[in-house]
């Protein structure tokens, strides 16, 4: 092998930003930045690198906008917003370093239970409220921009995996009517978008959808946002319905003043919704009309003696039944036939079991463990862990975010469902049997991160 061949076969070195952040993978691009997954070699952790897009370098207003957003992002603080670790510039391109997150978007998950929707929605409202309080822009409100990064926790960010065409549709789907008509929108515009997002979280689809952003924006001006009763007839939630009608009112003055006011109303609703929000009960079955009771006999005069039948009811006469010899012979014959049938069935079962054992012996290479096939501990469907790039799915000893973690299930692992779902801490849980350290272990996992095989 020549020196040239040896040089071409050697992979190029992984770029290191500022001698600290080793770039590992390009994840996608947003409005202003290209996003990379990188490794912080000083603190030994994964981070996200947001580099200003090279194709926008000649547009100074956009460059200044990126720098301003990076600086303002460092001033906002909320658990559902990306933490900013560092900012800088290299080769004339500004960059921002943030915490690393990965997971599934709410768009990918689809419809949620009421408990889960309110749990996640309150975090999103809090993130927007924190941005409004700090006077800095918040990430665009959209189900594609909310990522479920752990059990019961979501983060609001600008999704770097959406195309420009998809991004235009996203913005139009949540655009308040005043923006669609060409006027400016204040904090109540975010309240309107948040209201549409909550409806989508409950029904699993956008309220105003389509492929043409202009047509979608027009619908905000002409169409009414449907009530929960219209889109979810089995959900009885009058307090939540009233709050959503206010949040999505076409007139901005009727909406809560900002995300903080929406959050306060939501907290009050969550304290009282347990008795107010429930599935509608099925109507009771119609009872059949009962026949009228026969009229009571007229009372006898006091001087008249009561009839003998009414003074002491006569005992029923029992007539002994004589055994029928022909019926006895029939029962004997039937018993003999049943015994012969069972004998033949047992013989057939033994033969089939032997054949199946031979087949199983020849196919032992693809046999499944008993804990997974359901032979041990009962039957249940097989589920697959689907948690994306997150380290693993926690297996807990009981439902709830405060329970003990007894194992970590990697993405793609198969588990056997044993029970559930049960709701705890606003999260739906299922009981499963899984393999942990080579042993079959039973515990609870979040139902959001498992799917049927």
What does this structure look like?
With 453 residues, the protein is α+β, with helices and mostly antiparallel strands. It has helices at residues 3-9, 60-73, 106-109, 114-134, 164-173, 177-180, 187-203, 213-222, 228-231, 238-247, 259-276, 308-311, 325-362, 370-373, and strands at residues 16-17, 21-29, 33-40, 45-52, 84-90, 93-99, 104-105, 146-150, 153-156, 235-236, 278-279, 382-385, 393-396, 405-409, 414-424, 427-436, 439-446, 450-452. The chain has a 6-stranded antiparallel beta sheet, with helices on one face. It has a 5-stranded antiparallel beta sheet with strand order 17-16-15-12-18. α4 packs antiparallel against α7 (187-203) and α4 (114-134) packs antiparallel against α11. The protein is globular and about 90 Å long. The protein starts with a helix and ends with a strand. Mean pLDDT is 79; it is low at 1-8, 277-327 and 355-366.
Overall form: globular
Trace the largest sheet across and list its strands: 1-2-3-4-6-5
Percent of residues in helices comes to 25-40%
Number of helices: 14
- Which range does the strand content fall in? 15-25%
* Helix and strand composition category: alpha+beta
C-alpha-based Rg, rounded = 34 Å
Average pLDDT for all residues: 79
- Low-pLDDT runs of 5+ residues are 1-8, 277-327, 355-366
Q: N-to-C terminal Cα separation, in Å?
A: 48 Å
Number of strands: 18
Main beta-sheet strand count, sense and barrel state: 6 strands, antiparallel
């Amino acid at each position: 092998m020549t020196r040239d061949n040896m040089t071409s076969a050697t992979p190029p070195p992984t770029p290191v930003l500022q001698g600290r952040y080793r770039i590992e993978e390009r994840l996608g691009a947003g409005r202003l930045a290209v996003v990379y997954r990188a490794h912080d070699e000083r603190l030994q952790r994964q981070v996200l690198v947001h580099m200003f897009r090279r194709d926008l370098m000649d547009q100074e207003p956009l460059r200044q906008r990126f720098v301003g957003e990076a600086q303002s992002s460092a001033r906002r603080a909320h658990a559902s917003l990306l933490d900013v670790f560092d900012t800088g510039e290299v080769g004339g391109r500004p960059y921002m370093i943030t915490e690393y997150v990965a997971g599934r978007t709410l768009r990918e998950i689809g419809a949620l239970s009421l408990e889960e929707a309110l749990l996640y929605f309150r975090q999103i409202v809090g993130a927007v409220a924190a941005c409004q309080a700090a006077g800095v822009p918040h990430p665009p409100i959209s189900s594609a921009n909310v990522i479920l990064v752990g059990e019961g926790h979501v983060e609001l960010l600008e999704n770097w995996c959406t195309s420009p065409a998809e991004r235009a549709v996203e913005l139009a789907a949540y655009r308040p009517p005043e923006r669609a008509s060409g006027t400016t929108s204040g904090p109540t515009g975010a309240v309107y978008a948040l209201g549409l997002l909550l409806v989508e979280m409950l029904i699993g689809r956008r309220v105003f959808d389509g492929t043409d952003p202009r047509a979608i924006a027009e619908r905000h001006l002409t169409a009414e946002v449907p009530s929960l009763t219209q889109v979810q007839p089995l959900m009885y939630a009058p307090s939540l319905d009233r709050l959503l009608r206010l949040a999505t009112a076409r007139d901005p003055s009727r909406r809560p003043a900002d995300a903080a006011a929406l959050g306060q109303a939501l907290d009050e609703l969550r304290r009282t919704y347990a008795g107010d929000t429930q599935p509608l009960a099925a109507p009771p079955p119609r009872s059949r009309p009962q026949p009228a009771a026969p009229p009571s006999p007229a009372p006898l005069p006091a001087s008249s003696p009561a009839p003998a039948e009414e003074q002491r009811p006569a005992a029923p006469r029992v007539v002994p039944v004589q055994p029928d010899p022909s019926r006895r012979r029939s029962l004997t014959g039937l018993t003999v036939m049943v015994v012969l049938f069972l004998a033949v069935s047992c013989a057939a079962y033994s033969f089939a079991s032997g054949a199946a054992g031979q087949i199983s012996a020849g196919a032992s290479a693809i046999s499944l463990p008993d804990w997974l096939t359901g032979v041990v501990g009962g039957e249940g469907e097989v589920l697959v862990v689907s948690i994306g790039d997150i380290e693993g799915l926690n297996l807990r000893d009981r439902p709830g975010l405060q329970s003990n973690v007894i194992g970590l299930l990697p993405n793609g692992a198969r588990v056997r469902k044993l029970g559930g779902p049960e709701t705890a801490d606003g999260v739906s849980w299922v009981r499963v049997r899984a393999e942990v350290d080579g042993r079959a272990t039973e515990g609870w996992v979040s139902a959001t991160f498992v799917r049927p095989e």
